[in-house]
Design a protein that fits this description.
The protein has one helix at about 30-35; strands at about 1-15, 15-20, 25-30, 40-45, 55-60, 70, 85-90, 100-105, 110-115. The chain is globular, with a radius of gyration of 14 Å. With about 130 residues, it is mostly beta strands.
């Protein structure tokens, strides 16, 4: 068995950082659905702004709100306005292409890739076209 990337929210913008909350990351339920992230599922967060990496679990936020709120101690590492990637993984013998959900600056879905490595014409320069 190996651990493979299952899905990710790419270039999400952190809308809140709440140090006083017990823990987790609050994610707009529409975004969770698009990336197949389940409530209380473990996620890896990479902060593109400062390079921090952390693991936590996802909880659903209001649908259509665009909320990405870093809760608890993780708020020391990730701040409001930071650009992050939120990833899920699976342990399996048979890997499947990950679902990649590209977000715009308001955390709206710009594009959804179901086979990002093999999709024709996809590169860093034209991800959002």
């Amino acid at each position: 068995m190996r651990i493979f990337l299952r899905s990710k929210l790419h270039k999400a913008t952190v809308t809140e950082a709440n140090l006083a909350y017990v823990g987790s990351v609050t994610i707009d339920r529409d975004l969770m659905d698009a990336a197949d992230i389940q409530e209380f599922e473990k996620v890896l967060i990479v902060d593109n702004t400062n390079g921090a990496r952390l693991e936590t679990y996802a909880i659903p936020g209001e649908r259509g709100s665009g909320v990405i709120c870093i809760n608890g101690a993780a708020a020391h590492l990730v701040k409001k306005g930071d650009e992050v990637i939120i990833m899920t993984f699976e342990v399996t013998h048979t890997p499947h292409p990950p679902v990649v959900v590209l977000l715009d600056a308001a955390n709206r879905i710009a594009r959804r890739l179901t086979d990002p490595v093999r999709e024709e014409g996809v590169s860093e320069e034209n991800l959002y076209s």
